Amino acid sequence: MAHHLRTCTPADAALVSLVAGAAFLEAFAGVLDAADILHHCYENNSEAAFRKHLENPSTRCVVAEAEPGDAPIGYMLTCEPDLPLDLLPIDYELRRIYLLHRFQGQGVGRHLIEAALNAAQTLGRTRLLLGVYGKNHDAIHFYEAMGFVQVGERYFNVGSQTHHDAVMARAV
User: Fold this and answer.
1) Residue 89: C-alpha distances to residues 92, 109, 152 (Å)
2) 45, pLDDT greater than 90
3) Which domains does the chain carry?
């Protein structure tokens, strides 16, 4: 499937919210309770939440769009790090990267990672960090193939449930 990447502006908040909610539901249906998924999406994937991210000058967001038609199929969002590590001025965080399942394995995820690395480099950062659900072995394998290594862990709450995440890093 042909695709392209496009840098987002605050005007894209609704579009990114749509793909974020769809990808989160697709990734966690059967893992999380429906009420927890809805609460998480309402709090973290709303149009207002993305507008706030996109208005931050050090945040970068890129959406992957299918061709033809420009329908959103995934996105990545990078920002100042908020992870339980001894953070350094060189650090930048890949806060979110999601791709609808049917588009995985086609190089889109690799392009989104490259966009995240470019965003970090543009800001003069030399280490990119991310948190990933510890039981998402496919994602962890993908990140390892992209050069990330585990450097820590965190606990992440979604609704009433606490989940273990791996914190990973790679040089930019």
Assistant:
1) 8, 26, 18
2) yes
3) 3-125 (3.40.630.30)
